[in-house]
Amino acid sequence: MTTDDKITQPTFVARLFEEERTGIAQADRTRVGQSLAEIELDEIIGKTKRWARAGQLNRGLSLTLPYFDDQAMEIRWRELQVIPRGRVPFVPAFVVIAARLESEKANRENGMSATTREHLLGQLRRLDLAFGGGAQNLCGSGSKTE
What we know:
- The protein is of the alpha+beta class.
- Helices cover 58% and strands 13% of the residues.
- It has helices at residues 3-22, 24-53, 92-108, 114-130; strands at 61-69, 74-83.
- The longest helix is centred in the N-terminal third of the chain and has 30 residues, at 24-53.
C-alpha cells in the first residue's frame, strides 16, 4: 500500500460510513439497481422482438422480468407466462395482456416497498408499450372499471 492509499482509504471509508448513515449510498444503489434492471429489460424486449420476427415464438413464451427490490438491495425476477406451451402463434398483444395481468397482481401484493412497486410497475409499463399497448394506464391505480 502506498502513502497515497493510506491517506485516501480512511477518508473513503469514512465517506462510505457517512453515506450509509444518511441513506445517500442506498439511494445511489437503488438508482443503479433500477438502471441495470431497465437495461436488462431492454435486452429482453429486443431479443423477444427478434425471435418474433424470425417466427421462433410459436411454441410458447414466458418472460422473466427484472426489477430492483430496494429492501433486499438486489435485482429480482418475475415470471410472466405470455403464451402457454403448444402451437399458439405469437401475437404482440399477448405480451401486453401478460404485462397488464402482472401489474394487477403487483398492485395487490403486500410486502413490497412503494419504491419497489413503482419500479416494477414501470418495468411492466415499458413492456406493455414495447409491444403495442398503451390504451390502458398501468400506473398502479388498480384495475380500470367500466
